[in-house]
Amino acid sequence: MFNIRLLENAKSGEDACEWLCINHDSYSRMEALLSARRHMQWQVFYKALGLIWTISDDIAKHRFVLYRVFANSTRYQLDLMMRSKEMRTLRALPEIIPIYRGCYPNNRSGLSWSTDKEIAAGFTLQNRYKQPGQPRLLLESRIKREHAVLMLERNEQEIIATKIIRPVKTLELGVCLK
Prior knowledge:
Layout: H1 5-8, H2 13-23, H3 29-36, H4 42-53, H5 63-71, H6 75-79, H7 84-92, E1 96-103, E2 112-114, H8 117-122, E3 135-144, E4 148-151, E5 158-161, E6 169-175
Antiparallel strand pairs: 1-3, 2-5, 3-6, 4-5
Helix pairs in contact: 2-4
C-alpha cells in the first residue's frame, strides 16, 4: 500500500498526477484518486482528474461515483479538467452537442462519448474492446454543452458526459467477429 497522504497533500494537479502514475497502473489510478478526493484541495482534485482521464483504463467501473462527483460540480470545477485549447473548442461547439458512442449491449451506459461518429464506431473494432459474437452498436444522443467536458489529447474528440445520457438512436453495426 502506498502512502495516500502524499496524494492528499499534493499542491497541484500535476503533482497528484505524477504520484498516481508512479504508484498506480492505468487500471488503479482512478480508484486511488477517487478514494483521496474528500481529503484533497478541490482544485487539485479536478485538475488531476482531467490529467489522468486519458491515461486511465476501466473508468466505467467508477461511473456511479463519478456521476455523483459531477452532480455536485460547478462549471468552473469541470473546466479545471480541461486544457485551455479544450475549453476554447468546447465553447465553440453548439449549445446542444450531437454525441456518439461505439459500444456493445453490456457497456451502453458510459461516460465517454465522441463528437465524431466514425471515431465512435471505431471503438467497437479495437482489440481491447472487442466482444466476439456480440452486436456492435453505435449510439447517438445529445448533450447540453454545460454538462460536457471535452478531451482532445487522444484525437478521439471525447466528450465526458457529466450527466447520464439516454441514447436517442441506436444503430447496429453488425456482429463482432474474431
